[in-house]
Sequence to fold (473 residues):
Amino acid sequence: MWRDASLSRRLLTAAGAFIAMALIVAAVLIGFVLHRFVQGQIDQRLDTQIVFLSSMLRADSSGTISLAGNADGPPFERLRRGWYWQVTGPNNTLLSASLDGTRLDNSALRERDERRPPPPKKDRNEREDRPRPADGIGPDDEHLHYRLKSVKVGAIDVTIITSAPRAAVLGPLREAMTTLGISLALLGLALVLAIVLQVRLGLRPLERLRQALTDVRTGCSARVPSRQPHEIQPMVDELNALLDQNAANLERARRHVANLAHGLKTPLATLAVATAADSPRDPIVVQQLVAQMERRIRHHLGRARMAALNGPVRVQTQIASRLRDLGDVLGKIHTDRSISFAMDLPADLTAACEPQDFDEMAGNLLDNAFMWARTSVVVRASSNDGTVRIVVDDDGPGLTLAQREEVLRPGKRLDEAAPGFGFGLSIVSELAELYGGSIALSEAPPGGVRAALELPATAQVSRVSTVVQRLED
Fold:
C-alpha cells in the first residue's frame, strides 16, 4: 500500500513522523534539563541553609549544642509546609519552628546516588564535603527531598538535615512542562502546515506537467512547455523528444502510404487495360504486373511499419523459441524425407524486430533449407557488437555464385517446377534492410547453401547457453 500511495501522502507521512519524533525527543531532553535546573535551585537553597546553620552552631563542655541566633528565616518559618531543618548532636537535637516539635526520622531517609563521575583528586575533598541528597517521608507523610551534612562543632560530630517538599520540585516542573508541551504542540502544528504548503508548492509543477500532457493528448498542444523546474527539466526534454519523434515517424508513415498509392496507380491502370474485354490477354504481362504491385505493396508497407518503429528499440523477439517452433512445423511437413533439424544458439538471444517479421524472414530461410536439404538443416546464431547473426546451413545441391545473386531478385526461381512464386528470399532481403540488417548467401560446409541473416540486437548476451535440439522423423 505504501508503494501505491501518492507522493503527497508519502512526503506528509514521512515529514509528520519525523517532526513528531523530533518534538518528543526535544520534550524529553528539555524536561530533563528543567528538572536538573529546578532541583539545583532547591538544593542550592537547602545547602545555603546548612551553611547558615553550621556557622551559628555552638557546643558547651558537656556536648550540648545550641544556635547563636535565629535560623528560622523564609521559607523555614512556615509551619508544616515541608521546609524543615534539624541539627542532631550527641546530647540534644535542634528543630526548626516549622516542625512544631516533631522530629525528622533519620532512619527513614534514603540517600540518593547522584550518578556523577568520580571527581579528580584535587576536587575530591571538596566534593566529599558537599551535602548529600536523600528522599524520605516527612512528619505529615508527605514526600520530602533532603540534604544531609555531617559537621564538627569543636570536637563534637553533628548532623544537619534540611528538607524541601517534593512538590517544590515537581510543581514548577509540571507547570513548565505544561507550557512547554503546548508550545511544542503549536510548533509541531506550524511545522506540519509548513510541510503541507511546501509539498503542495513542490508538486505543483507535476500537476502542470499532467495538464500539459492532457493538452497534448487531446490535441490542444503539440509539445510540453519546455520551461520547467530543473528537477523535471530532463524528463520534459525526453517527453518532447519522444513527441517530436512520434510526429516525424507518423509523417514518414503517411508519406510511405502516399507513395504506395501513387506507385500502384500506373500498374493498376495497365492491369485494367490488359484485362479489358476487347484487348488480348497475355498471362505473362498480367503476372509481371501482379508481381510488380505485390513488390511495391510489400516495400512501402514495410517502410511505413519501420517508420513507425524508428528510433529507440521498442520491440524484441526471442529467437530460440521461434526458430524451434518453425523447425517443428517444417520437420512435420517434410517428415517423409527424414530431415534432421539442429539448433545451436544462446537461449536468451533477442533481435530488435517485430515477431511476425522475424517469423517471415526465418520461415522463408528454413523453408528453402528444408526444401533443398538431403538429410539435415542446422541453425546457429550469435551476437556481436549489437548485431545478431543467424546462419542456416543445409546439405542440399548448393548454388553457384551467379545463382546466389539471381535468387535474391523478386520473382526469380531457379526451378520452375518447385512450388512458390520466387518472392521468399527477396522478401527476407527487403525486411532485413528495413531493420538495418542484411542477408548473404554462401556455400555451407556440408556442400549446400549457407544463408546468413543479420539483424540488430536488443541487448548483449550476458550468459552464453547452448541449446541443441535434434528432430528426426
Observations:
- The first strand starts at residue 57 and ends at 59.
- The CA atoms of residues 439 and 453 lie 5 Å apart.
- Confidence is low (pLDDT under 50) at residues 411-422, 459-473.
- The two ends are 55 Å apart (CA to CA).
